[in-house]
Automatic annotation (TrEMBL):
<keyword id="KW-0732">Signal</keyword>
<feature type="signal peptide">
    <location>
        <begin position="1"/>
        <end position="27"/>
    </location>
</feature>
<dbReference type="GO" id="GO:0030247">
    <property type="term" value="F:polysaccharide binding"/>
</dbReference>
<dbReference type="InterPro" id="IPR008965">
    <property type="entry name" value="CBM2/CBM3_carb-bd_dom_sf"/>
</dbReference>
<dbReference type="GO" id="GO:0005975">
    <property type="term" value="P:carbohydrate metabolic process"/>
</dbReference>
<feature type="domain" description="CBM2">
    <location>
        <begin position="36"/>
        <end position="157"/>
    </location>
</feature>
<dbReference type="Pfam" id="PF00553">
    <property type="entry name" value="CBM_2"/>
</dbReference>
<dbReference type="InterPro" id="IPR012291">
    <property type="entry name" value="CBM2_carb-bd_dom_sf"/>
</dbReference>
<dbReference type="GO" id="GO:0004553">
    <property type="term" value="F:hydrolase activity, hydrolyzing O-glycosyl compounds"/>
</dbReference>
<protein>
    <submittedName>
        <fullName>Cellulose binding domain-containing protein</fullName>
    </submittedName>
</protein>
<dbReference type="InterPro" id="IPR001919">
    <property type="entry name" value="CBD2"/>
</dbReference>
Length: 157
């Protein structure tokens, strides 16, 4: 199993934040949680990957499993999005994603770039909270290059 934490694409995320239009603050929820912010706070994205294999009717299939955890370390809520580059492996495919396939159009691949957007119910990440995205795939083992948090108030670490 491989775990990677660290600044991956901080400059890209920071540039995206500086060039993105300001997102208006949202009214506090009924339960009095703070409103989401556009002021930079601290978020961290951690990736754990593992090569796995399982049997299929057609024979043994080699695949991969990954978990991405996004944590809001700041004092204000944030609205998140995440993307990464698979690398040059043309046979890599996501076959199932948790926390991103419940609603239509919340995850997509553009060539080797993969994007995950929030569901309506997990759009706002409250301070101190973590959301976990799990995925499995087949084909080549992805590299998860250039992990990028492109959300109001988050940067990639």
């Amino acid at each position: 199993m491989t775990t990677r934490t660290g600044r991956v694409a901080g400059a890209l995320a920071a540039a995206a934040l500086l060039s993105a239009p300001a997102t208006p603050a949202f009214a506090a929820h009924k339960d009095k949680k703070p409103a989401p912010t556009t002021v930079a706070t601290d978020c961290v994205a951690t990736i754990k990957t593992a090569r796995t294999s399982w049997s299929a009717k057609s024979g043994r299939t080699v695949g991969w499993q990954a978990t991405i955890k996004v944590t809001n370390l700041g004092a204000a809520p944030v609205i998140w999005n995440i993307s990464w580059d698979y690398g040059a492996e043309p046979t890599t495919h996501v076959t199932k994603l948790w926390l991103g396939d419940d609603e239509p159009a919340t995850w997509r691949a553009d060539g080797s770039i993969f994007h995950v957007s929030p569901q309506s119910w997990d759009r706002v990440l409250q301070p101190g909270k973590t959301l976990t995205i799990g995925l499995v795939g087949d084909g080549g083992f992805p590299k998860f290059d250039d992990l990028e948090m492109s959300s109001a108030g988050c940067t990639a670490h």
